[in-house]
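Standup notes, structure subgroup. Blocker cleared on the uridine-5'-diphosphate input:
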Amino acid sequence: MRLSIIIPVYNEYDSIPELHQRLSKVAAAISADYELVFINDGSKDASLERLILLAQSDARVFYINFSRNFGHQIAVTAGLDHCGGEVVAIIDADLQDPPELILEMYKKHQEGFDVVYARRAKRKGENFFKKVTASLFYRLMVKITSINIPIDTGDFRLIDRKIVDCLKQMPEQNKFLRGQIAWAGFKQTSVEFVREERKYGATGYPLKKMIRFALDGITAFSDRPLTLVTQMGIAVSLIAFIIILYAMYAYFIYEKTMPGWTSILVSTMFIGGIQLISIGIIGLYVSRINKNVINRPLYLIQNTNLKK
Ligand code: UDP
Ligand code: MG
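Run returned:
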């Protein structure tokens, strides 16, 4: 198999026909030996029925139907686990990522690059909040991690089989593929594109999922939050020490102590707040350790037309 294209699908009924048509055209232009691997991530609409029909009429279409919604990163992981291509492209199903760009990515691969990611030169149709938070997040990641996660890129990319094999060796339960691929190294480059608006349907990434995803990325690739907690602890302890000295002086030498309601209230609140934040940050890491120790399967497949 020369080329596999992996497409995670969550409620994308309306976009599937156009997507299939455009992807087939692009893939055929690269090699006659290709496969389209759709992962139905617990869609609530009739996406699965559409995929099954497609697979019946097109022998190059494969689907993996999850037993429920496991999330976008897990869906892509399942695709990587089951695809057979020497070159693998990952693309969203909502046509925000133009399929035709895969041709350009493939050219770069032919020039010798192992990872060709698509950088969003512009994002159309996404609201101000999403653009700003995404932009801040990527810049924060660059600051607090030691790996070079490319700014303004998603998972739309083309990777060599080498990289797929590396990813399969990474056992983490909380996947952050764009970070893992950056971590892998090898020869990486980018192509630029304008991210279109979603043509059909609605985003499957509401704020809650975005925050969880961001925390997965941070905890998997940085210890900075933990260092920060320690630094906060040291700073607060220093201040506390000075206040203790002052309190002793006021009591034993100056022999005049105040009623002190405000100062006690303020310091208790302050230290209480810092403690809760610290425990919360440590909790983020502990919960992820917990998940990895339990080590459940990442996903369950209900049915598929892939031959194992
Ligand atoms: N997706 C998925 N599972 C989910 C949410 C999304 O497989 O739980 C798929 C979705 O069908 C799409 C891709 O992941 O192909 C990106 O999701 P979406 O377009 O909703 O995210 P956005 O572009 O708004 O960040
Ligand atoms: Mg989208």
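Discussed briefly. The chain has two domains: 3-206+298-304, 224-294.
Next: hand off to the docking folks.
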